[in-house]
Amino acid sequence: MRGDRKRVLVTGGAGFLGSHLCERLLEDDTEVLCVDNFYTGTRENIEHLLRHPRFELLRHDITFPLYVEVDEIYNLACPASPVHYQFDPVQTTKTSVHGAINMLGLAKRVKARILQASTSEVYGDPQVHPQQESYCGHANPIGVRACYDEGKRCAETLFMDYRRQHGLAIKIARIFNTYGPRMHPNDGRVVSNFVMQALRGEPITIYGDGSQTRSFCYVDDLVEALLRLMATDDATTGPMNLGNPREFTILQLAEMVIEQTGSKSKIERRPLPSDDPRQRRPDIGYARKTLGGWEPLTPLEMGLRKTIAYFRDRSLRAV
Ligand SMILES: NC(=O)c1ccc[n+]([C@@H]2O[C@H](COP(=O)([O-])OP(=O)(O)OC[C@H]3O[C@@H](n4cnc5c(N)ncnc54)[C@H](O)[C@@H]3O)[C@@H](O)[C@H]2O)c1
C-alpha cells in the first residue's frame, strides 16, 4: 500500500458502471483515481464526487501509456453498447487491446492488482446455454461486433499471459447485461429503450412475440461482485461470469416498465431479427462459490424503479 490508504485506479470511471464503482470505493477509506476520455462517459456521472477529498479525475485516453502510483486497477474503459462501439470500431479495438497492454504494463511496474471488465460477448453467438466459463465461445472474427467481442477476447488473452509470463495478480470478470441509473438513454439496449419510450409516451417496440428471455443485473449487485473478485487471493484469476441468472421475457419487462412509469404507451410488435437470441442467461455457479456467497439481491421491480426515477429526473432537468 502506498501511504496510509489504498489507492485505486478506475479506467472508464465516468461511465455507467465506473461511476458507481468509484462511488462505492469512496465509501471505504480508499483514494480513487478516475481516468476517462469521456468518449461515452460524462462529467455529470461523477459531478457529485468531484469535491470529495479522496477522489481525483484525470482526462486521459488509455490507448496511451499512463504513469501513476496505484495499488489496484479496475480496467473498465471501453464503449459497451453496439451503437457506441460500432461508431468507431478501430478505436474500440485499440481501447480494448492497447488499453489492456498499457494498464497491464502499469500494473507490472507498480505491482498493482488488476481487474479486467470483460463481457459475456466473448462467448459470441453461443451454442450452449447457459454459458459456463469453460465454454470457449462461438465468435465471428470479421463481423461488425468483432471490434468489441474480439477486442475483449484479446484483452483476456493479454491478462492471462501477463499472469503466466510476469506473475501479475489479475482478475477477469465476464459481465452480463447490467442496468441501473446513469445508463445511456440512447444506447439501444432493451431496458433504456423501454424506459425512454414509456416516459415519452411512444409505443414500446418488441421484436417477435416477446417470449424471448433476458436476464438483468442491477448495477449495485454487479459492483459488489467486482469488489469481491478484486479481494480474492492471487490464485483466483477468473474468468468469472457475473450477472443475474433470473430470467424475464421481453414482454414481462415491457409490461413492468409500462406499469411503473404509469405510461399510456402501447406495445408495438415488430418482426424478429434472425440473430435475436432466444435466451441469454449467465451461469454464476463459480462466482457464488468463490465470492463468499455473493448473489444478486436486487429484484427487477426495485432496480427498475430506481432506473426509471433516474431517467425521469434527467428528462425533467433537460427541459
Ligand atoms: N453495462 C453492461 O451491461 C456491461 C456488460 C458487459 C461488459 N461491460 C463492460 O464494462 C465496462 C463499462 O461499461 P459501461 O456499461 O459502464 O459503459 P460506458 O460506456 O458507460 O463506460 C465506459 C467508459 O469508458 C470510457 N472510455 C472509452 N474509451 C476510453 C479510452 N480509450 N480511454 C479512457 N476512457 C475510455 C468512456 O468514456 C466511458 O466513461 C466496459 O468495459 C464494458 O465492456 C458492461
Features:
319 residues; alpha/beta; seven-stranded parallel beta sheet; two-stranded parallel sheet; 10 helices; 13 strands; globular
What does this molecule look like?
The structure is a single chain. The protein has a 7-stranded parallel sheet with strand order 3-2-1-4-5-6-11, with helices on both faces. The protein has a two-stranded parallel sheet with strand order 7-10. The chain has a two-stranded parallel sheet with strand order 8-13. By secondary structure, it is of the alpha/beta class. Helix content is 39%, strand content 18%. The chain contains 10 helices and 13 strands. α1 packs across α7 (219-230). It has helices spanning 16-27, 43-46, 82-85, 89-110, 146-166, 190-200, 219-230, 250-261, 285-290, 300-318; strands at residues 6-11, 30-36, 55-59, 72-75, 113-119, 170-175, 178-179, 204-207, 213-215, 217-218, 240-242, 247-249, 267-270. The termini are far apart. The chain is globular. Nicotinamide-adenine-dinucleotide binds at residues 11-12, 14-18, 36-41, 61-63, 76-80, 84, 95, 99, 117, 119, 175, 177-178.
E-strand count: 13
Measured on Cα atoms, how large is the radius of gyration? Answer: 19 Å
Strand order of the largest sheet: 3-2-1-4-5-6-11
Overall pLDDT score: 95
Low-pLDDT runs of 5+ residues are none
Q: List the helices and strands in order.
A: EHEHEEHHEHEEHEEEHEEHEHH
Q: Based on helices, strands and strand pairing, what is the structural class?
A: alpha/beta
Helix content: 25-40%
The best one-word shape is: globular
What binds here, in terms of ligands, is: nicotinamide-adenine-dinucleotide
Largest sheet descriptor: 7 strands, parallel
| Total helical elements | 10
Percent of residues in β-strands: 15-25%
Distance between the termini: 46 Å
